[in-house]
Amino acid sequence: MEEVYRFLKECGTYYLATAEGDQPRVRPFGTIDLFDGRLTIQTGKVKEVSKQMLANPKVEICAFQNGRWLRLAATAVEDPRVEAQEHMLEAYPSLKGRYQAGDGNTQIFALINVTATFSSFTEESRVVTF
Fold first, then answer.
1. Domain ranges in the chain?
2. Which among 71, 72, 87, 90 is least surrounded, fewest beta carbons within 10 Å?
3. pLDDT digits over 58-107, tens only?
4. What angle do CA 6, 11, 16 make, to 5 degrees?
């Protein structure tokens, strides 16, 4: 989990895929945190991505840096605790202009049942699960 966290944190931007009915939806994302022993991401409840993850919690993430990429499949489970929101906002203070812990909009999703595959053109792929 730590290796996946570091890779995504160093990338800065990764791409999160959700489903809306039978249509995949992909968008750039930038929040990644470790809270209470779980990898977490943040969004706003008013966003379509939130509605999509609540309707179908299966997500995928793809990130690339320095000739290596990460593909991650997981289940996104909402963590409604204000402490999770506070932890994320401390990790990303630039979000505090748009989000506040306990504001009714800030939303944290923990990624569970994770299968992460590290790949490159020069090495064999390696899979980690948690």
1. 2-129
2. 90
3. 999 999 999 999 999 999 999 999 999 999 999 999 999 999 999 999 99
4. 100
Rounded CA separation 70/111 (Å): 15
Task: Please give the full DSSP string across 9-38, using - where no structure is assigned.
Answer: HHHS-EEEEEEETTEEEEEEE---EEETTE
DSSP symbol at 90: H
The CATH T-level fold of domain 2-129 is Pnp Oxidase; Chain A (2.30.110)
Amino acid at 105: N
Cα 105 to its chain centre, rounded Å, is 17
Q: How far is CA 78 from the centre of its chain?
A: 11
Residues across the chain: 130
